[in-house]
Every structure is written in C-alpha cells, then in structure tokens.
Amino acid sequence: MSGTGSVPSNEVVSAAILANCKRLLDDAKALLDAGSAGSALALAIMAIEEIGKGHQLELATSKGKSTPSWHQYRQFLASFVLMASLFQKYGLPQPQFPDGIRQRIEERWANARTMREVVALPISDDLRKDVAELTKPLLDSLDHDSIFILRIELAWNNKILMAAASGRLEALRQSGLYLDHVEGHVSSDPSAVLRQDAYRWIRVAERALLLLEHGNFRAPYGELAGVLESLKPLPLGGDLVRLLESLQASTARDQAV
User: Fold this and answer.
1) Residue 182 belongs to what H/E stretch?
2) Is residue 186 a part of any domain in this protein?
3) How many other CB atoms are found less than 10 A from the CB of residue 249?
4) Which residue of 23, 88, 129, 212 shows the fewest CB atoms closer than 10 Å?
C-alpha cells in the first residue's frame, strides 16, 4: 500500500471481479424467474468464468497452449479450485502421485493434446485402481457419514471439472446465447434450454462464489450433500437408499418448477 493510503490495484480489481460475479448471478436468477432459461444458463456460466478470473489473479496463473480459449481456461480454473478446496474442507492432504502413476498421467498429455482430447481418452483399469488405492488411506481419519457425503461431493465436483476441461461448459454457455443451424435445420436454440439446467449451473456458480469471496471450505458442495449434512447421523442400508431416492425426486421437482 502506498503512503497516500490508496488500495493496491490487485485489491481494486479483485473487488470489481467479485461485484461483477454477483451482478451476473443476480441477473441469471432474475432471468430464470422470468422464464428465460437460456440467458440464465449463459450468465451463470459467465459468472463461473469471472470467478476463475478472480482465482487467476489470486494464484498468478496463465493459460497454457493446451487450452483453446481464455473462456475455457477460466471456467476450468474455477472448477479446479472447487475440487481442490474439497480436500481442504475435510482436512485431507492433496494426493501425492508416485513416479509410475505420474508418468502414466503425463503420457495422456503426449503429442501436445488439448484438454478436450485428454478428457476423451479412456482411463485404463490399472490406472483407475492405482489412483483409488493411493487415495483410500486419506479417508481413514473420516467417519462413515463424512466418507459417504464426500463421495457425493466428489461426484458433483468431478462432473463440473470434466465439463470445463472438455469444453462442454463453454459449449453450454454458447447454447444459451446463440441459435445454430445446419442445412436449413435449427441445431441449437436458446429457447430449448431446460430450466433445471440453468438452475443447476446457477447453484454451481453460487458455491464457487462462496469460495472466491470467503475461502469457505465448510459449506456443502451441491444440494444433496447439503441436505445429508443437515440429517447426520445418516440411516443405514435400505433406509439410506430410500432417503436418497426421495431427496433426488424432490430436487428434480423443485428444479422443474
């Protein structure tokens, strides 16, 4: 900070990014309530992108050649920080991959593949098993309920991360804005975007915003995890299955309204 008491430029930019994220999310919710799901979806994903811009400033990162656009890079960065923060929520160390696993992971990036190409590559059963065995000891400190909820949160985060890394999230953003046609036929129409899809990405943006604004590692990741945390201790066996089915059906009805 200078002797004049002025705020450092990075803090000014961070505050402006945060304000813009909130504006985009507020507009997305208003548009969803007004029945414009396509525009709401696009604005929610743009908010996620702005959140990635905030993390980019915090972490002083830059886009690599494997990412085709700044849009996709910032969407991926926001989703990556979301995933990394899940380990912090549970007080778990980030997995440290030994040389053998690291080499196999790095081989997926051979020949200057893009993230879309890497995500599309099949994961071998051996690599999947080795990674699972490596992460399993990290869970020893957690109780049964926490492990169950963590697995749900991992699945929620993984869908977001894969959508951003593969370019599907950027394609979704564009689908909410632009009408595409092929040989006289409409192939993508913003008016066809489902309300539940816009709602889902608004909720993702809200969770990511918590992290950017507060570093809030304790809040649940996803609505299902939030409900389960409020119900601990969880039932066992068939009672738990019936509870999950009931919650998922209720969530689907709420999103469709």
Assistant:
1) strand 180-182
2) yes
3) 10
4) 129
| Domain interval for residue 170 | 9-92+141-256
Tally of domains in the chain? 1
Question: Which alpha helices (DSSP H) does 167-194 contain, by range?
Answer: 168-175
Q: What pTM, to 2 d.p., does this model score?
A: 0.81
Residue 100 placed within a domain: no
Instruction: Confirm whether 211 is domain-assigned.
Output: yes
- CA 86 to CA 254: how far, in whole Å? 26
Instruction: Give pLDDT tens digits for 131-152.
Output: 667 667 677 888 999 999 999 9
d(CA 30, CA 44): 11
Q: Which residues, listed in sequence order, are joined to residue 186 by a DSSP beta bridge?
A: 181
User: CB of 197 within 8 A of CB of 45?
Assistant: no
Tokens of 171: 């394609």
> Is the residue at 44 inside a domain?
yes
Three-state SS at 186? strand
